[in-house]
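Re: beginner question about structure tokens

> Can someone show what the tokenized structure looks like for a real chain? I only ever see the sequence side.

Sure, here's an example I had lying around. Input first:
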Amino acid sequence: MPEKEVYLERRKYTEILDRNLSAFKSGAGKNIAILGHRKSGKSSIVKRHIEKAHEGISAVYIDFSRIGMSPENFAVEFIGSACHWLLGKTEHKSLDIGHVLNLVSEMNSARSAEIAKSVQNEISKIKPDQRLLVQLAFNFLNALSHDRNIKILAVLDNFEEILDINNFSQIKDVLSLVNLNHASVKYVVTSSAVSEIKKLLKNFDILEIGKWEKSEIAELVKKHAGKADPKFADAIFDLTSGNSFAASEILRNCSNANDAKKAFAKSLLSRNGLLYGYCLDSMGYYLNRTRGQVMSKIILKAIAANRELRLSEIARKIYKSAPVTKSLIERLISADIIYRKDGKFYFHDPVLRLWLKMTSLGYEYDRTITEEDFKEVLEHL
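And the corresponding structure tokens:
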């Protein structure tokens, strides 16, 4: 049975992007960074936005999570991915340099062809100039827009992945190597590394994607049920706190308020559930962005199990001094998994908090969750 699509147009965000696209067509426009926590709908927004980029604007979509983040691979795959989009290619071929050169030859751009040839020459060296390779990749779009007299909208999804290139010996600050301010090439980037990317992209307009509001969930329930159901919308909002991925998962699996808790619990605590996988992946993503993962996870478990802890209380629970605990907590705040309010610490994502609390208590299942299991689990929801 095909999975029901659950999509809600976030008009307050799409309207900003649409206005910027119109400004770009008229010779203005800005670079925009769309930031939000994992599975908040960033990719869905930009993919639908690309569909509007006809009439004088050529769109390119590149998912940085699918590109090899060595300078050599990045240069080859960035250029190859851009050509695939601009040429309307649908086949999925490995983007080796030979295939990329063939793609570039179809672009009818002498400068772009020269850049691609420079990449080929550089990666054939025993010690390539890694800084130059990154610069060549971004310069490719500039050269293409110049030679073909076109405007290019470059959508770069999961933009924070490019920071992995900073791990290579020749590169300390990858973003300092590239010029993202070009009249005929505008960038829309997405990232879940909210705090970090905000600091790095100071010349971009920042568009932060918030959680679904109760009114948006009510609209989506009405769209799927064919009628308003305030109790069902309230139940979804209460369980998910507006987490769009979790709310969508409930809508896919039940159709009324009475079944909402069971649908939520089943997906959250079954090891094959979508919400279980989402939380497991999210935990890995955030912990990978911190140093000292063992202590970071211990702190997160303490915050998940005990609402509204202060620094001194967390320090006692993890058996560390306040200064050491403060340093560890600051890393978690920088990684966007928790935040501080009125001296207490909270998860940005309440669904992730609940998952960590419940799985730490042993509530996770390889088997079908029974009615007896549900009775015990639902007491915690």
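Each token stands for a local structural state, so reading them left to right follows the chain. The mean pLDDT is 90.
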